[in-house]
Amino acid sequence: MNPFQSNRREILRFSALGLGAAVGSALPEAYAAPHASAPVATPGIFDVRTYGAAGDGKTVDSPAINKAIEAAAATGGGTVVFPPGNWLSFSIHLKSNVSLYLAQGATIVAADSPLPGATTGYNGGTYDAAEPNAPWEDYQDYGHNHWHNSLLWGENLSDISITGPGRIYGKGLSFGANRAARGDYPIYVAEQAGVGNKVIALKNCHNVLLRDFSILKGGHFGLLLTGVDNLTIDNLTIDTDRDGMDIDCCRNVHVSNCTVNSPWDDAICPKSSYSLGYARATENVTITNCYVTGTYELGTVLDGTFKKFAPDARVGRTGRIKCGTESNGGFRNITISNCVFEGCNGLALESEDGALCEDIAVTNITMRDITTSPIFVRLGARLRGPKETTKVGTMRRILISNLTSYNCASRLCSILSGIPDYAIQDLKLSNIYQHHVGGASQDSLSIQPPEYENKYPDPGMFGPMPSQGFFLRHIRNLELSHVEVAPAAPDPRPSFYLTDVNRADFIAVTTPVGVAAFHLDKVTDLRILLSRAAKDTQMDSAENRIL
User: Do the beta carbons of residue 129 and residue 195 sit within 8 Å?
Assistant: First the structure.
């Protein structure tokens, strides 16, 4: 069953019932409150109250919810409805051909995990055990190796959906071990038996639709989707303390119209780990019309107050779109368009574990108050994977265009770097305006960033940069056109710092007046044309030259 056809039929059913969250009208009396009289009996609709769920925020409802899902699956499929209420739950088991619908005012609440040393949570139960994933567990972080220790999970399923304007609150989930408590949330150690680690986890599924609901505090992952094909994620709002959504080893994926506030980790994160036991690419992916940020306190995007962290708060403000870090299988045919970044890290594309990254287009991006590099493209050699098969990967045919970044931090510029003997290939950047704070010291001119070939990839790994615009290293076939670098305060660093770059074209580039625009080292086949940054220039090679 196609999830879009299923969703259309679902809306028609709700229209007949008068379920206002689906069609904009008022709820019928039987759905008006969690303690209303007996639900309306409708073929294909399975109300969780019919199976004993209370929705009072005190009773553990997951046994009743699982009964409703099983009943729907037994009839060949249907829609399990959560009316308004707080549905306290441990692990919920998704089934093929079954849709979950969260009505307006409905919240699935993750029950408390066991505290360190305890055998059950405060609510008297535990989440499903984390299933073994040997011998692949050493190749990615703990959370990526397990799916069953989640609030909602499914494996080897097809034709499933979770829709509706309700909410999922991961109150009792772990956001990772050995981390300080955040606000009123206790620390649950992810590796401890019975602890829940994710809101929604799917493995080896296809035809999946996730639409319209919101997630508050999503645990380690709001969404962990591994080996999921024909996946649509639309109009979600995620306000969380770790990753918003991880799209791992997936194919034919559409992410649209989503808002993600994730101050302590990544917002939208395609990955290609080794958790399935083989290297599988994430491919044919579109990410469009999304807003990502790391600047707001947990929960304040969802409640509409948008309360920013204090400037001195110890928060990573990560909140970005990143392909990686897990990157065994690679990324192919990826488009990222019409997205807004605010108060977070910038765009990151990474191949660290042998990934083939190719045919990636990024366009129509606006950034404001970026805390690290606006653009970070890294081909490295961490090589976390089976030693006999994991080799340095390839990055090629990457286009980034129509990007504006305002008020970026100046310690780091945009960084695009391969490693010796492994260059990024066929890289084009156009129509980019990069505004930053400026004000670096004269000492920064002498900085020579280390290679750090096998270090965990992140923009800050190299330390302060010797460029105020773009640091370009180990690249073959580079083109920058209609690019401007604009500091708010005077900055002595060159705008373009090139090392080991072959065949580079700069067309109509603009840099600050009175400051050298280019630092060229081990550069061959360079052309500069129609630019305010420097006179038209063509040279076969350049060693430690300033223009």
Answer: no
Domains of the chain in start order, with CATH, are 126-546 (2.160.20)
> pLDDT by residue (tens digit) across 492-511?
999 999 999 999 999 999 99
pLDDT digits (tens, 9 = 90+) for 99-145: 999 999 999 999 999 998 899 988 899 999 999 999 999 999 999 99
Distance CA 433, CA 484 (A): 5
Q: In what order do the strands lie in the sheet with 221-226?
A: 92-93, 150-155, 198-203, 221-226, 243-248, 268-271
Q: For residue 11, what is the enclosing H or E element?
A: helix 3-17
Torsion angle, alpha carbons of 316, 321, 325, 329, to 10 = 170
Q: In angstroms, rounded to a whole number, what is the distance separating the alpha carbons of residues 79 and 168?
A: 17
d(CA 326, CA 269): 10
Q: How far apart are CA 201 and CA 224, in angstroms?
A: 5
* Identity of residue 222: G
Residue with tokens 């105020």: 468
Instruction: Assess contact for 119 and 135: CB atoms under 8 A.
Output: no
**Spatial separation of the C-alpha atoms in residues 74 and 79, rounded to whole Å:** 12
Average pLDDT, the chain: 92
Residue 424 near residue 475, CB atoms below 8 Å: yes
Cα(137)–Cα(363) distance, rounded to whole angstroms? Answer: 36
Nearest to residue 504, comparing CAs of 517, 482, 520?
520
Contact 14, 106 (CB under 8 A): no
Neighbours of 111 (CB within 10 A): 24
Query: How far lies 64's CA from each of 79, 155, 166, in Å?
Result: 15, 20, 19
With H, G, I as helix, E, B as strand and everything else as coil, classify residue 59: strand
- Maximum Cα–Cα distance across the chain: 82
Query: Which pLDDT score is estimated for 27?
Result: 35
From the list 112, 79, 298, 121, the residue with the least C-alpha distance to 209 is 79
Cα–Cα distance for residue pair 259/293, rounded to 1 Å: 8
Instruction: Please enumerate in sequence order all residues whose Cβ is within 8 A of that of 356, keeping only pairs 6 or more positions apart, or say none.
Output: 281, 330, 332, 393, 394
How far lies 71's CA from each of 95, 96, 424, in Å? 10, 12, 53
